[in-house]
Amino acid sequence: MKTKIKYTDEPLGKLRIVDDFLPPPEDLLFKEENVKITITLSKDSVVFFKNEAKKHNTQYQKMIRRLLDLYVAHHKQPPRTNKGLVQQIKD
Question: Which member of 2, 20, 46, 59 has the lowest number of beta carbons within 10 Å of its beta carbon?
């Protein structure tokens, strides 16, 4: 079903060299301070994360850590008030 690419021997035109704008690999690493803990999880949870990690070619511990980090980031935000919503309903 893939369409075969047809290459032609056409001139490319005027070429120019551009500066290297990509960051070095060491700048792409996330450097976070991690704390090692022991946690007991349900068997179903561990099996789920191991299966998902295998599908996405990653480590299940990293997936669990990322999930917890997202949860913390979400709940760290200032609490929302419903004042605007209540005022709209009253009007």
Answer: 2
Q: pTM score, two decimals?
A: 0.53
Burial class (CB in 10 A: 0-12, 13-18, 19+), 63: middle
Tally of helices (H runs) and strands (E runs) in the chain:
3, 0
CA–CA distance from 37 to each of 7, 29, 85 (Å)?
56, 22, 42
Ordered by start, the domain boundaries in the chain are 43-90
Q: Are 60 and 53 in contact (CB under 8 A)?
A: yes
User: Does position 84 have pLDDT exceeding 60, yes or no?
Assistant: no
